[in-house]
Write a structure and sequence with these properties.
The protein is α+β, with helices and mostly antiparallel strands. 17% of the residues lie in helices and 29% in strands. It has a six-stranded mixed beta sheet. The longest helix is centred in the C-terminal third of the chain and has 13 residues, at 101-113. It is globular and about 30 Å long.
Length: 128
């Protein structure tokens, strides 16, 4: 069965019901911020990361399929994308984009097109 980019990978270490708010988020090449919000809804799982000063205080939405590992003890999440890939994603506005199927399709396409062999998640229908 092919994994959907909008679901946590079975090997990510995410435990259903876990609160990821406040976890540090690490890209393949460094720290990107902390989790501000997360969703565990089936086929619409994601984290919203507050990037602080890294991208001038903006937030980014990352589909759960980009998450490689969740370390509950260290409160750290490792994602399979670089800082440049994350920074070049379609701009995120929480008020406009949460629940917006078109935006989720754009994000799914962006991260799906940057998928590298061996990383969890595959492009899937972008939906929330």
């Amino acid at each position: 069965m092919t994994e959907n980019i909008w679901n946590y990978s079975a090997t990510s270490g995410y435990t259903t019901g876990s609160d990821l708010t406040g976890f540090k988020v690490e890209a393949t090449d460094g720290h990107i911020g902390k989790v501000d919000k997360h969703s565990a809804d089936v086929d619409s799982q994601y984290i919203v990361v507050d990037t602080g000063v890294w991208i001038f205080g903006k937030e980014v939405l990352l589909p759960a399929g980009t998450i490689v590992s969740v370390d509950a003890e260290a409160k750290t999440i490792q994602v399979s994308r670089s800082k440049d890939e994350i920074k070049s994603a379609p701009e995120f506005d929480k008020e406009k984009h949460l629940g917006n199927a078109d935006y989720h399709q754009q994000i799914g396409t962006h991260y799906g097109s940057h998928r590298t062999p061996g990383t969890p998640g595959t492009p899937g229908p972008g939906r929330i």
